[in-house]
Amino acid sequence: MKEQKKMGRPSLSDKPSKNIIFRLSEDEAKKFDEYAAEKGKTKSKILREFVLSLISDKK
Asked: What's the pLDDT tens digit per position in 2-52?
């Protein structure tokens, strides 16, 4: 019997993940969109890299 493919986005790792939601003003969101476009990265990737840099300093 074939294993069924999972639907949805591929996981970033083999560990479970959690969504984190926060708010920005319209102006902040626009500037963040522009920043992400300039860097050629998704907003999620930018935030993930930032958070990981903060917590990796704690070790």
From this structure: 667 667 767 767 888 899 999 999 999 999 999 999 999 999 999 999 999
14 with 21: CB under 8 angstroms? no
CA 1 → CA 4, 5, 20, 47, distances in Å? 9, 13, 37, 40
Whole-prediction pTM: 0.69
CA distance 47 to 54: 11
Among candidates 25, 56, 30, which has minimal Cα distance to 43? 30
